Request: fold
Amino acid sequence: MADTGISRRTVAVIGGGAIGVAAASFLLRDGHDVVLIERGGIGEGASFGNAGCLNPSSIVPMSTPGTLAKVPGYLLDPLGPLSIKWSYLPTLAPWLIRFVQAGRLDKVEAQARALRPMLDDSYGAWLPLVRNAGADDLIHRHGHLAVYRSQADFDGDALGYRLRRDNGIAYEVLRDDELWQFEPSISHDYKIGVLFQQNGHTVNPNRLVRTLAEAFERDGGRLLRAEVRGFVREGATLKGIETDGGLVAADAAVVAAGAHSKKFAASLGDNVPLDTERGYHVLIRDPETLPRLPILDASAKFVSTPMETGLRMAGTVEFAGLDAPPNWQRADYLLTLGRRLFPGLAANYPQERYTRWMGFRPSMPDSLPVIGRASLCPHVAYAFGHGHVGLAAAARTGQAVADLIAGRPPAFDLAPFAPTRF
Ligand SMILES: Cc1cc2nc3c(=O)[nH]c(=O)nc-3n(C[C@H](O)[C@H](O)[C@H](O)COP(=O)(O)OP(=O)(O)OC[C@H]3O[C@@H](n4cnc5c(N)ncnc54)[C@H](O)[C@@H]3O)c2cc1C
Reply:
């Protein structure tokens, strides 16, 4: 092993999603003894079924000054991008209050500035891990297209484009013929497109995470299938991780359990307002039409991505917590919406060509993840709460976590992501 000048630790990474696998991979590169603990299949949490976008342009927080006013309209429209299970509302209320508070203009500007370096050149940030795994075929930089049905819809996103311009994110506006020639698969009901040329995507998020985990194991990392129950400490010193399969010795750890991370942070003195925005996808195998690049229907708020397995349409936000069963109608609506964007698609598909999925975005009310040291145990680092951008942010987050464990200054300012910011 190369001498990295870093004191070698035994690091347990909790959670085998995009964030955990990226963190484990960078920690291994630093020469640590790393064990990645996952209770289910690697990459089968939120990281399984997302839209695959690696978008530096996704710096616009979910809560903005105009968001609240749109909520009633969203909730009344069965095809709208938002739904709430009303019995979950009392549990969600404190999170919602913080969400609304986070939407003040000065806060939104600060959130966008904080997200900018974490999402910067997301495709390029993934490359070292992807190349090491021999999986270059899994990520591409073909750009990302946001499309609108009307000038009014486009104008409604003016703040988002202002934030992008302020943060140096380039885009090009395409109108009518220019748009339809650029992407012939879409309906001519869409009049305006915004092309982000620097954005990338993966053609299979699950295979990406699994392939990186295989490379991690090949390079000397350990994969352990177990359910983590808690930490064993002596004061501020970590001694190990308690799992359903026994104690795992560790003198450092990373909490990357996605939407399930809240209880781990609470046990280390950090009461973070983590909840989940549930999302859905439908995947059509052998679709009649396939776009060349991911397309965000910015009017209906879902993304259609050309995957190696077919056409995936992903999106929607559902507040219903971690325990309620999926509402598959939310997924089927995505096909209804998808047919407006791609008139070539069929109204129905046989089971073997149509799959549906639901997953739990790990969501913070201010759209910023939690990346930083645990209050009661400085050798435990948090890396969760990435909401809508966890795949795009995973590589840079993984590197930042490795920096924290090594005692190196991270490449971007982690102060806005502090667990103690609330
Ligand atoms: C519909 C949809 C579309 C999306 N589109 C995009 C997109 O285009 N681009 C983008 O960047 N992001 C997107 N996202 C968000 C992205 O998927 C998430 O932010 C990201 O996957 C979070 O990764 P994670 O590793 O934190 O969580 P996860 O992938 O959920 O991983 C956490 C892991 O921790 C494990 N775990 C939990 N508790 C324990 C325990 N006690 N013991 C052991 N293991 C445990 C879980 O089993 C899980 O595998 C989308 C999300 C959804 C739902």
